[in-house]
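User: Structure tokens for both sequences below?

Assistant:
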Amino acid sequence: MIGFVKKQPFLFIVSLSSVFFYLSFAYDLQRTDFPKFIMLYGALFFFFYKIVQISKNNLAFLTILTVLFRLLFLLATPNLSQDYFRFIWDGRMIAEGLNPYLSLPQDFIRSGTFPVLQAEELYRGMGELNGSHYTVYPPLNQFIFWLSILFSNSIFGAIAWMRFVIILADLGTLYFGKKILERLQLPAHHIFWFLLNPFIIIEMTGNLHFEGVMIFLLLWGFYLILSGKWKTAAVLIGFSASVKLISLIFIPMFFRYLGWKKFLVFGSLAGLAFGLLYLPFLSDELLKFYFTSLHMYFNNFEFNASIFYIIRWVGYQTTGYNIIRTFGLVMPFIVLGIVLAIAFFRKNKTFQQVVVSMLLAISVYYFTATVVHPWYVAVLLILSIFTRFRYPLIWTLVVMLSYFAYSNPDFKENFWLLSVEYVLVYGWLFYELYFFRKVRIPN
């Protein structure tokens, strides 16, 4: 240790500082305290960048920090998201033999029926908005919720078990991500632009968002495709979509890479793996309630949008009212058309070309979405490390500006901060698209 400090004093300082800043973030931060939040995050991002930059040839050291920084959150309660209350509610519903997709938490509370342990506390925690909607978390996600309940009857215990699953998934991402980079003859340390990013550590490990598990399954599938085992890969990508539905957008991107005959089998296997996991929850009302919540999501909620907010402003000027319902009906079909065009007409003959197509497709989706929660950007970041694009890395820095909305009781967004966020993201993207040869990519 003394030798390390003498040889790399700056690296030691930023690594140790990261430990203390993560501890402060995990145990001494309220999401309403935006100045403290953004200063801590900005410092952690700077530390992360310097650590990876300096230690790119020391993968063992980077791996130790990857595990250490996550373990710092082990005893913490998520402080930027309250979604975990609904996770636990759903898990306890399954443990009681009830279908979480078929009931609203608010109905139980209003009727005075408490189907699960600590029902009132969980309902207060998730909030009336969450409790008034049917759950949309896919079945493999539900399985993790249920598993955490089996291991612990307490809210804190369930949090710890879910966090343990996410940390294990990140280690799987390290394993397969490194192997994919090596197959593509890219620097292996690029995986740490994802794993040591404070955005990933805070949003996945800290706040229990399961994009981390989805990404692990996705990368496992990618590695199998590169190994020629595309049938097994299809199943894993189907499982990935059973954690987060967004993975479904990636399936068409393999059309030209595999050829239409193999793709038909690939798509069928992925769809079958995805669909079979719903069988334990299957009922006549499942699709109705599921799509009711999805429809409400696309047509009622707004947060951290970019193109939509511009169109909404134009709508106010021309019609005098919010056109989100019209936008929510039309835009999904436009996005679907663009995604299919990327899949079927873009040159996707090599694996890297496929990944670039995935990155472009999901970028189109989020750029036009009415809701872009910060943790959504995780999947763009992991895809980017296998490509020449780095705008998702920039996005992970500035997306946290959207948390300003939580610093006031009305959850009012600051459009100046959102402008800063998207000007930097779009600006860097256009720079990479048109002036790539001049771009300095981290190495």
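Moving on to the next sequence.
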Amino acid sequence: MALVGIDLGGTQLRVAIADDRGRLRTVVRRPTEAARGRQHVIGRIVAAVADALAEDGTPASRVRALGIGLPGPVDPSAGLVISPANLPGFRNVPLNRILTRGTGIRSYLHHDAHLAALGEHRRGAGRGASELIYVTVSTGIGAGLLIGGELYAGAHGSAGEIGHIVVQKDGPLCTCGNRGCVEVLASGTGIARAARELGAKTPESALHRLDSPSAEDVVRAARAGDQLAISILETAGAYLGIAMGTLVNLFNPQLIVLGGSVLKAGAPLLTPMRRSMLASSWKAARRGLRIVRPALGDDVGLIGAVEFARLRAGHARPA
């Protein structure tokens, strides 16, 4: 018997076939082509599953379950995709039912950050930790929670939206509609926004010479000693630390697995983040806390989706 795991993003769709113990055997990658709408994307998912099964030599009848992770908000208990910003047209879509019908495989969805947390817990850096938070800082900022060794999604699947903790009163407008969310200040998108706004006012900075600097441009400039770039990363790190401290106070975790492309910025971001987290969290809440890097790399979403399929198929024990 086999399992299917899907990692669906606004840019890339990946489908994995795994054995009954969750070990990946075959991986198929496709562009999502999200701009072409919901029906087109769903058709691509179903076709990619069929292609992956054919490449693996496994008939759909030999698959126990399919797990799919995608950006929130989603409602896992209802099998609904609510309204992810980077998947146009996916509003209140009963994706579990649609994929079960389209593939012939029992299908189960969850927020991608939560499945990343599950993957690290069962197969990666979080083994043995019953109270774990997975935080990802990339284009956006999100978190997945395990409490008592079980995924915690909240009443309707929205738990872990760390990116929308407000850390700056009357700050920049966030895509969620609020102002001053940590996502708009400390994500890759937020760092790029700060670089555009501040670079335009700072002729002595290398960022001033770029029409639309990215977060990667800011990191490169900081490594070259650009003071504005260093300041942007330090500010982002300080705001991120406030949000991290809030998580520590709320959940008293044993372990935080901290990942995402923005963390590659290194010390200019991480040092103020740690300082700010210490200042904004209660000492008792962080007693024994460890913060580690992920162990599963780019496969974390796929492995998490496979592990979710294993759970839903009745395989409760980690591989």
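User: Anything stand out in the second?

Assistant: The CA atoms of residues 10 and 288 lie 37 Å apart.
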